[in-house]
Write the structure tokens for this entry.
Amino acid sequence: MNTGLLFKYSMIQLRYFASLRESLGIGDEQIELPDGIHDLPGLSRWLQARGDTWASALADNRLHVAINQEIAKADASITDGDEIAWFPPVTGG
């Protein structure tokens, strides 16, 4: 039976690099964008609610974030289909 209703899920790709990947034990995942989350601060708070490891790893204000492979501002908006990547600052010598 077709009720005529169409459900659309907003999916985003999350990627974690370097020491962040090691701390979290995951390199990437695809998730449904949680209701009411439309920006990086909201997504970060939602991820930090996963537990102490997540809260500690993502609370580092030195982390860089890219949306669709471009460095993003801390308050950037996110939308369906985005790829969001967190990575620690790179040092060289």
Remarks:
- The longest helix spans residues 40-48.
